[in-house]
Amino acid sequence: MQGSETQKTNVVSLFNARDKAVDSASQAETGADDESFEATMERNKRNKDRIEKERLNANKSVLRSYRIKN
Questions:
Q1: Half-sphere exposure of 32 (CA within 13 A, CB side)
Q2: pTM for the model
């Protein structure tokens, strides 16, 4: 009898996992409504500009380290 009790505690319910996935998806959808489209565009533009600057600096340092001339 003890063996069957141990097996019962190791069973994973598929229904609980599905319910958690639905809850997290609904939270993600509600969180997207909090930010306006313009704010998202502005944030994306700032990130794009920042990444471009970082890439330019990284490329310059690589050119210097390998002593490559343009």
A1: 6
A2: 0.45
